[in-house]
Fold:
Amino acid sequence: MASSDTSQDDSMYPIAVLIDELKNEDVQLRLNSIKKLSTIALALGVERTRSELLPFLTETLFDEDEVLLAFAEQFGHLTNLVGGPEYVHCLLPPLESLATMEETVVRDKAVESLRLISAQHSTEDLEEYFVPLVKRLATGDWFTSRTSAVGLFSVCYPRVSPAVKEELRAYFRNLCQDDTPMVRRAAASKLDEFAKVVEIQYLISDLIPMFVNLAQDEQDSVRLLAVEACVSIASLLQQEDVEQLVMPTLRQCTNDTSWRVRYMVADKFVELQKAVGPEITKQDLVPTFQALLKDTEAEVRAAAANKVKDFCQNLDAWNLESLIMTNILPCVKELVADPNQHVKSALASVIMGLSPILGKQNTIEHLLPLFLNQLKDECPEVRLNIISNLDCVNEVIGIQQLSQSLLPAIVQLAEDSKWRVRLAIIEYMPLLAGQLGVEFFNEQLNSLCMKWLVDHVYAIREAATLNLKKLVEKFGAEWAQSTVIPKVLAMSRDTNYLHRMTCLFSLNVLAEACGPEITTRLMLPTVLGMANDSVANVRFNVAKTLQKIGPILDPGVIQSQVKPVLDTLNTDTDVDVKYYASEAIVSIAGE
Structure:
């Protein structure tokens, strides 16, 4: 008898511990106990989990939001611990409670878990347990339960009987017409999802009227979500049905009094274009796109400008050029001089992509003057976006034309008063160099690269040294030996100690790119000579440079030339010089 009591006590122990921890004042302890639910359920067994643990948890769902969030997540993963799909409906009551909570993240997580376990219900259980739950939530007194309900229709609809499907469509219609804007907003956000699982005849007869009503809602936050649904609905319908059922509403959204709705149309425009097909695009969407590019609100123009390249790319091939040249390009020319910098920047990020679409002649005649204007724009971001996309223009018009038209503007930017603009040009230089070729680069841009090494901003000097390394990797060590290294070595005699330090930084990166022979013959003597510099910062950077280039030098050279200099620096009067010299000695000795 005593042993049976003991075993009963042992079996009750996990739940007793859980109860204690869930009642603890420490939120973290409560969270930890929820994360151990699966372990506790495993210890209790499936029957006691269903009969004791779940009812207890359902009763205790009054806690901090983060604890409820953890509950909502855990319940989605307990199917096997309550006895598998046959008993998965036991998890519905606690999740139903969580789906009515005030905190949005808790409700969303509960809905996510409900969607997850809906797939594990058999068809019979879905109709017996899950659909009634959806109906209860959809008719709940509080808007919180009704907003949760809209996310559950699409997961159960495909697997229920026609009679139940009809009921679900009626419930969803009621939610679309709910008095509370939050519920209508939730319904609008899930309309596209529901449209994908509803049969085509009911999509036309039931869902499109809902879509039309939502697109005319008094709240713009509801109307803009209807635009998203428009994409899904249009892609599910035949072309003639799209023209008749969807386009009138879309035209209305394009002319909406709220800029947010028009912004959403602009943002989803390419998806809409793909959904409605080439014929409707030509007749309806091209004029609509023109209107969006000329919108009174800068945010709408920026969103539309961002889609220029993709929209043009997806136009019907046989009349693509005439449509762009006649309808789109005049609007683009206006946007280049737009008063709002975000609009100009959005356009600059995509306008270069029109070159491959329009071809060489149109690019030279119509696009190059626009690129030139943008390169001279007062907004740094506009200039940067043009520079970053030069390669696709180069592929179309060739380097000769590019150098004649755009290169003078790039050179001007390289000397811009704003250091971030100069930095952008430096970062683009290796790519530009690869496109121009070594001869052209030496003539036009090499002097700029050397000039950056003595820039008054440290970030520019640092970027310029890395730029040198990339150029050497592109053009080879011989080019470095004749063109770059002599100029870098000359900086070691500069009166400004910052320039002497830049010389060392450059040699650090060039040694790696040029290899041991050139490093030993040309660079090492200069580095060793700078060990006697009057400025301590230069001397300790000599130690750091010797440590850096040590691995590529011959051991004999290290012993005969490098080590004596480091030993001298190790007895320097400056504490930093001694420190870096000792670091270098240890590093070289360990190799």
User: Anything to note?
Assistant: The radius of gyration is 35 Å.
